[in-house]
What does this fold into?
Amino acid sequence: MAVFTSVSEAELTAWLGDYSLGQLLELQPISSGIENTNYFVTTSNGRFVLTLFEKLTVGELPFYLNLMAHLARHGIPCPCPVANRHNQFLGTLNGKPACIVSRLSGKSITAPNNEQCAAIGAMLGQMHNAGQSFSQIMPNPRGSAWRAATAPKVRQFLDAGQAELLDSEVALHARQNWAALPQGVIHADLFRDNALLEGNRVGGLIDFYFACSDALLYDVAITVNDWCMNAGGVLDGIRAQAFLRAYHAVRPLLDSERDAWPLMLRVAALRFWLSRLFDKYLPRDGELIHAHDPHHFERILKNHIATAQAIRL
It folds into this structure.
């Protein structure tokens, strides 16, 4: 969520004239992340988050905004898009598609405990259940075809061992077909910085702009790979079990999902190793950009491969 497109208070005040949100009191840029431009916005009517979309198009965005509105209506603590005077969630600001959503309570954490991992596991299960009644479909834009197209672009920056690992994993997961596993809407990026906690309670899930339709277990693996991982990229079994037990209590996992789990952890790690390699070596121009270290997910992937037989649900 780097600031690629600057917005002044005067520009935002004019844009907010199309909303019933009161007087602008404060505009604060959010510097973390790498996909969209985000600002904290405080008005006389409350606290909000402004997002200008740098990659997603006007045609793609209704899926994400309608999804957040749907989940919010079903009790999931997520940003709720605010409609303008024309009853539209999406507008245009400084030449970019833009929306404003409610700002949630809580803060991100860096070192989750067992109870917090369990709380996120339960909330992810609730989100997956709530998403079953969402009718729109968005094929995963970072699935097998994206992996096959992106790997050759970053391969030149890798040493021989890394290139061999990348090639073999891309080929392995291209042969998998998870269509028989339970499907639905997934967050696809529920890292620690995309959840807000108040103590051990989940105050909100944020940044739904990678959400898509895919195997629900893939979302579980993405989340576990961040929330339940030790610094060296080794899965913390105690935290992982706390997460998975809480998730299973809300949405029971099938035997087929248990069988798929070791490979799902690997493809989830591969997805973020690839995207971080791309962001590091082929970045876009922008202000306040922070590119994440791709070696972190390379280590996670290697550790999952090394301990494949030990990783079971």
Summary: The longest strand covers residues 24-30.
